[in-house]
Amino acid sequence: MKTGGQLIVEALEANGVDRIFCVPGESYLAVLDALHDSSIETIVCRQEGGAAMMADCEGRLTGKPGICFVTRGPGATNASAGVHIARQDSNPMILFIGQIAGHAKEREAFQEVDYKRFYGDIAKWVVEIDDAARIPELLTRAFAVATSGRPGPVVVSLPEDMLTSEADTPRALPHTPVETSPGEHEMQQLEELLEKAERPFVILGGTRWSEEAVGLFQRSAESWALPVGCSFRRQMLFDHLHPCYAGDVGIGPNPKLAAAIKEADLVLLVGGRMGEMPSSDYTLLKSPYPDQTLVHVHPDAGELGRVYRPALAINASPHAFAKAFAGRGPEAPPAWADRTATLHGAYLQWSTPPASGPGAVRMGPIMEHLEDVLPEDAIICNGAGNFATWMHRFHRFRNFATQGAPTSGSMGYGLPAGVAAKRLFPGREVIVWAGDGDFLMHGQEFATAVQYDLPIIVVILNNGIYGTIRMHQERDYPGRVSGTDLKNPDFAAYARAFGGHGETVETTEEFVPAFERARKSGKPSIIEVKLDPEAITPTRTLTEIRESR
Predict the structure, then answer these.
(1) Is the pLDDT of residue 110 over 90?
(2) Among positive and negative, which fits the CA dihedral 23, 26, 28, 33?
(3) What 3-state class would DSSP assign to 462?
(4) Could you tell me if residue 391 is inside a domain?
(5) Is the CB of residue 61 less than 8 Å from the CB of residue 91?
(6) In this predicted model, what pLDDT tens digit does every residue of 288-316 receive, in sequence order?
(7) Of 108, 275, 297, 420, which has the fewest beta carbons less than 10 angstroms from its beta carbon?
(8) pLDDT (tens digit per residue) in 197-242
(9) Contacts with 431 (C-beta within 8 Å, 6 or more apart), sequence order
(10) Are 10 and 157 found together in one domain?
(11) pTM to 2 decimals?
(12) Residue 80: exposed, middle, or buried by beta-carbon count in 10 A (0-12, 13-18, 19+)?
């Protein structure tokens, strides 16, 4: 006989879980007690939203479900930000919630929430386990649902009395991964379409990729001389210095890249959904009928034809598709090879930082320095805001599993993601790229980095405003500033208060020595870069945006 808490931990162990992220709560003390005797590492976080984002980042970088435990009520609702990210970003994740005891249900008991209703629209599956004997069955299913088809978050509610009850059940077995592979007929059709094309373009996105799959597809693209773009915040799917790389299909893309996609006669979309952001509000690919011949490859049949009607739909995971595509190639050099080279040249020009800019700190030289000194396997994590443009546009990603950034546009993601990434890959450099408003959404997780001795480097671009909103405000309501000013703390002192290393940069020249001191400190570090609010984008100032109205 084992308690429900013991059975939960046993099922996690059977499914290969190495760590969980949590904020403790009395509602699942039985699980915490069982973890005491387990080899599973417990990472104690400071807020449930941060814990859920850490779990999301683990799923993002490994393809295995990130695991998060939170308590009922406020804990569960705080975690919803991370669940929403996992849903929109198609990342495998399982959120366990301690629930009130069964006898108190339907009375609006202390911190009672109906999780099936609360999470019904943003989780892939929500289940409440009332009988401890069913834990092996339902947890095996939770892992299967989180990882199959289009991956996503699963929410498991654990009533407190169920966790302390005892049951005699078979030992939990691991879930069986489900792969979806393309048929030979579909691959032949794709080859025929490519042979007829004059201006093809490839867009990579989504999840269920691997280092092997990225390498295989890169070699296939080279064989066909295909121009390749990466969907919004999926830049780690293709080497940016490869001669086939054409750029980031994200927010405000290179106009030459956007034109190339619109002019394409064949678009091969692999793994992604091509949602509102990467499609530039459904203008690069029109919904439901694209102007281009569309070949859509996706692991979930439900996504094929949901937004766009493809000429050829291939129900396959990116990994399986990359394997099937490998080794195929044209008999003669394709006619579009020069076009691919031209697009790569346009990308290199677009991703070269500007030398000048307003204020005492110029971001262009800072980005150039980071490109010179960061190793190719460095992991870049960020949340949302105009500050992210500097990294997205000017950092050239080279390897798989080097980007932790939410396609859902959620602020506050970078720091929790950086904590998770450094715990996963302690030997790799992890840079958290943050804005001042963005950082303070989950700035308390810096304490988690200190507690577990995770020497991440957080670069905060502090311009004293919610920059993206101010930019839109000046464009649509020029000169009528409302609700976007911020008064910030001394972020370097903030780092030191937690036991980390802090630096303040007020001129361009101060950044390089500050960055090196942060590296050498061996501590979690914050480098506060005091940026002029006018430097709102790499090409236009706030004043220029305001006066262009």
Answers:
(1) no
(2) positive
(3) strand
(4) yes
(5) no
(6) 999 999 999 999 999 999 999 999 999 99
(7) 108
(8) 999 999 999 999 999 999 999 999 999 999 999 999 999 999 999 9
(9) 370, 374, 378, 379, 380, 381, 418, 456, 457, 458, 459
(10) yes
(11) 0.96
(12) buried
